[in-house]
Write a structure and sequence with these properties.
The complex is a heterodimer of chains A (286) and B (193). Chain A is α+β, with helices and mostly antiparallel strands and 286 residues long. Chain A has helices at 43-64, 72-77, 88-103, 120-137, 216-221, 240-264, and strands at 21-28, 31-38, 143-147, 150-154, 170-176, 179-189, 198-203, 230-237, 268-273, 278-280. Chain B contains five helices and six strands; from the N terminus they run αααββββββαα. Classes of the chains: A alpha+beta (286), B alpha+beta (193).
């Protein structure tokens, strides 16, 4: 059994209990996706479920990746095809992204400052959501899906046998943006009815090229970019698309967007300011 | 003459409505006073059954369309409060002329909100609210909570803590496939592979 040392104290942590969980990973969309099931579900089930999730992610990546020259997104960016001719999922996600742009008063935008359509801010959340729907359709009730730091869960990790109705939540840790080997906070996901199931985190330092400060459209032309107010923003919500989009929007829109988000949506937010101070909604309080 | 009769009838009706409204307030007042068992918030003498009887007489006479215009409203208002005192059957009831100006302490019902149970008490003097107090503002754990869900400054020691050995998954800004290799999530995944 592998031991994980506790980076905060440097001390050796308690050995993990009997292997109660089983995980599989694959690489997609430039990051790594992990699917974790209670070990009681069986290894074969995990292999089959991971294959389903991987196919789904790979399919969306093929359409939406701007890193693939032959993707539909790249052909749209080169204006070889027009949006009305694009695949239905492309048009659907574009409509969703435009809707989120209106709801967030422009803090979330489906366009890069140079005007190129870029749906990467919403595709991963959508992929996680669709994967979750597939897992439920496969009859899996207890699982945790983590795609590059964005998490969606169902049920509980404590299920002795599948669907035993345990209401222990999945415990998620949130990395400290200053030191990615330590955790800055924890948050319980799932477990009991009504608990939030999704946790998404956006940062201004990590792959920051897909988040632009609101109003950067003007600044970007002259090469000036507004300094982001937050280094990292984590949003817990009932669904992963809302959590993902709002985390992105708050990093881009700063304090006004943070207040709009907490006023307008049923979410919990933990924000790390540029100076390292924390802002949190009551759900993140000890 | 018909017009005058109509006007006075209308005024009388308005008076009755006012009386009903005020008696409603006082019934509420009596209830909250009894519930909180704080004896005599307004501390006055109790009304007698005779006052109540006079009240009914007064209001019935006003509904019969007396030509007493402005005075009919005030009169029936007093009568209405008297009746309220009798109906609610409370021993101590503020029913003086001054109380007709809606003074006292009123307790609202408990309302469930997404922030927990909320109950508010207001103090009224001379028809104006002079104080508002939250009697209940708690969540399921009986802790007081903020009424706003806005994000507030928090010390690192005040957030829900987590140890990497004690979590099943790690949230963070998107890590690249390369960065994943050295990430906490990779360590957790490796433990469960």
């Amino acid at each position: 059994m592998q031991r994980i040392s506790d980076p905060q104290t440097g001390a050796e942590a308690q050995p993990l209990e009997a292997p109660s969980l089983r995980a599989r990973t694959f690489s997609c969309m430039g990051t790594v996706v992990s699917l974790t099931l209670p070990a009681a579900s069986g290894a074969d089930e995990l292999v089959a479920a991971t294959a389903v999730v991987e196919r789904l992610f790979a399919g969306l990546d093929e359409t939406f990746s701007l890193y693939r020259a032959d993707s539909e997104a790249s052909r749209l960016a080169r204006a070889e095809i027009k949006l009305p001719d694009a695949a239905e999922v492309m048009r659907r996600l574009y409509a969703d992204a435009v809707g989120w742009g209106l709801l967030t008063e422009g803090a979330f935008t489906p366009e890069r400052p140079d005007g190129v359509l870029d749906l990467s801010g919403i595709v991963k959340g959508y992929a996680i959501q669709e994967a979750g729907t597939s897992l439920l359709a496969l009859g899996l009730r207890d699982w945790c899906l983590n795609a590059g730091g964005d998490v969606l869960v169902s049920g509980s990790p404590g299920a002795e046998s599948p669907g035993s109705g345990s209401n222990e939540p999945w415990r998620a840790g949130i990395v400290d943006p200053e030191d990615r080997r330590t955790l800055i906070a924890g948050y319980p996901l799932g477990g009991k009815a009504g608990a939030k199931l999704a946790l998404a985190t956006s940062g201004s330092a990590e792959r920051g090229d897909h988040i632009w400060a609101a109003g950067a459209g003007i600044g970007a032309a002259s090469g000036v970019r507004a300094a982001p107010a937050f280094r990292q923003v984590s949003v817990a919500a009932a669904d992963i698309v809302t959590a993902d989009v709002l985390a992105t929007a708050i990093v881009a829109g700063g304090m006004p967007m943070l207040d709009r988000a907490t006023d307008g949506w049923n979410i919990e937010v933990l924000a790390v300011r540029a100076g390292g101070e924390l802002l949190a909604t009551p759900g993140f309080r000890r | 003459m018909r017009i005058r009769a109509a006007v006075s009838a209308a005024l009388a009706s308005a008076g009755i409505l006012l009386a009903g409204w005020q008696s409603g307030i006082h019934v509420e007042d009596t209830r909250s006073a009894a519930a909180s068992t704080s004896a005599g918030i307004n501390g006055t003498t109790g009304t007698t059954g005779a006052t109540g009887a006079t009240g009914s007489t007064g209001s019935s006479s006003s509904s019969s369309g007396s030509t007493d215009t402005g005075a009919s409203g005030t009169g029936s208002s007093g009568a209405g409060t008297g009746t309220a005192g009798t109906d609610s059957g409370a021993a101590a009831e503020p029913t003086t002329g001054a109380a007709a100006k809606a003074g006292g302490t009123y307790t609202g019902s408990v309302v469930q909100t997404r922030f927990g149970a909320v109950q508010v008490q207001i103090t009224v003097k001379a028809g104006a609210i002079t104080d508002v107090e939250a009697l209940q503002l708690t969540d399921d754990d009986r802790k007081s909570v903020q009424i706003s869900n806005r994000a507030a400054p928090l010390l690192r020691s005040e957030v829900l803590a987590a140890q990497s050995a004690d979590v099943q998954t790690i949230g963070g800004a998107t890590v690249t496939s390369v960065a994943y290799l050295n990430s906490l999530q990779a360590a957790i995944d490796a433990a469960n592979l």
